[in-house]
Amino acid sequence: MGMTPVHFFDSFVEGNLTDCHEAPGDIRRAFNAAVSASHFADQYFIYNKRHYPHLVSSYNTLGQFIETLERLTDGGFRDIRSISNAYKHLYTNNDKKKAAHSSINSSGVIESIQLSDVEDIKCIEEEYLENKESERSIYQVIFTRKDGSISIFLPVLEKVVKHFRTMLYEIA
Fold first, then answer.
1. pLDDT digits (tens, 9 = 90+) for 51-89
2. Distance, CA of 82 to CA of 76 (rounded, Å)
3. Residue 81: which of 73, 102, 1 has the closest Cα?
């Protein structure tokens, strides 16, 4: 049967969410979390289409399933999928129109990434933010959408993962 959606979720999605909680300003961890969450949606749909078709019978295509996830997470899944796709195309896309440009602080840390024509995300970066609740400042990964709106990565990821938990444990 291969890796089930529950195993994939527990092994990768939850693990990467934990990593992001431990270091909310680490852009590498944010990218890893986005990639695993994006791939989870693919894995969930394809696995269930084959083994438990009744769970995804209301969707004819993966695209329809993705659109529903975007809607049910108030666009959060679109952001996560866009960040994942940006990660995939950072260094390999030679098309000048779609090329991504990175600003690297050191050879080991990506600090800010400016993107052009990649999904709905324009920029992903680490930012030092004031935390009014705890009265201390912390680094956070933030991203700017093509429409200019800015979000902190971790709450968006948490919303998507919460929705995935609901999906999984309705069938478990």
1. 999 999 999 999 999 999 999 999 999 999 988 887 766
2. 10
3. 73
Q: Which two tokens stand for residue 83?
A: 């960040």
Query: What is the distance between the alpha carbons of residues 4 and 60, in angstroms, rounded to a whole number?
Result: 21
**Report field, pTM of the whole predicted structure over 0.85:** no
At 94, the amino acid letter reads N
Distances (CA, A) of 4 to 56, 63, 69, 99, 140: 15, 21, 19, 35, 32
Which tokens is 35 given? Answer: 């990639």
Rg of the chain in Å (alpha carbons): 17
What is the number of alpha carbons within 13 Å of residue 123 lying toward its C-beta? 14
Reported as a pLDDT band with limits 50, 70 and 90, residue 123 is low
Grouping H, G, I as helix, E, B as strand and the rest as coil, residue 39 is helix
